[in-house]
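Take our chain:
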Amino acid sequence: MTVVTDASTDHAIARIRERLRARGLAGYVAFTPSNLFYTTGFRSYFVSEWWRLHGTVLAFVPADEAKPVTLMLGDFEEKTARAAAPGVDLRTYRLWVDLSTAEQMAQPSAPTAQRPEQWDAAELDRITTEALRDLGMDRGPVATDLPHMTLDTWQRLQRAAPDVEWVDFTDDAYEVRLIKQEWEIERLRTAVELSERGMVGAMELARAGMTAADIRAAYQISVAQAAMGEPRFAGYTDNWVLPTIGGTTSAGYGATAGGLQRGDLVKFDCGTTVQGYRSDGGRTFAFGQPSAEAQRLYDVLAEAQRIARDSLVPGARIGDAFLGAIGHVHSHGYPTFNRGHVGHSIGIDTFHEEPPFIGPGCNVRVEVGMVFAVEVPTYTPDVGAIMIEDLVVIREDGAELLHTLPHELAVVEPRS
């Protein structure tokens, strides 16, 4: 089989336009950071990292194939956007950042207009109005990301196109994004590899007395060290990690209670972002020999997670993976184990849990090209938290693992 890994949004745009025409919609205005990235191929740093700039970058996707995908953004990001999205029409406005060369600034007779303190709202209104008009999206039903939109952007759209009936496109966008192209899968695979390097490196740094906050820092250090100088990790931008140690099983940045002791479980739920795609996964390590109860619970959960993975074959109902996994836990000594889902789709949302979820009521059928995070964790304060989570991509013959670390409970001998 020939694997095509060239990154292109052409396939995504074609599917979005097909969906728009089927619903009788004139176009789609992408608002969320992930949908902006998916429709253009450009990941804006401003809207991806700084929530207060949400709505200052918008992508306009007309249903008409003869009209171009158009991106409104600040001029500070224009150069990177042109490189990332050469086929997208850019319409820029002035941000507060001066872009003049030293030579230009030294010219006494070249006055320039004062830059805004941040941006000029009237200029955003004008560009939005013109883009919607030029693309034939200024009347009738037009789609956007309604549940996630700020009030400021909603009011801008209403001013720009008072004759538009705005329709939510959230479910449609997730359904289109659900089937991954090979280049998307390869980005997730690379993000997984980097995250696994972080987990292994953190446990090499683990010492008695360390807190969960210390383990977090060790993971982040290990990810950064692995990314430095490695060409395949050149697209690495950020990481996230929710570690726990022993009975300190609640999540949070301030997890400094307690200290790592012999026999404690160390749980990682973590991921990295590479070229816009964010992984999710985890493993559990024992800092010295674990208790018999911890080992027993771990083995039951590991088998339940395997059952869930193996249930994800083309044509299967996603919800059946949940029933099989939870049924195994209930019948093997833990009849009141309670969990809302045992996994989810994944891709490019900053919050990496994307629908559909592997829950009991999910009637969506498994298709080739879907990517899921599969997990059957516990957060038991007496035994310790346990996480075994893999990313899997659905192939014709079932689920292919993107994670490579063993599923057995790894015992790390304490070092001073």
Notes: The radius of gyration is 24 Å. The chain has two domains: 10-178, 182-412. Confidence is low (pLDDT under 50) at residues 1-5.
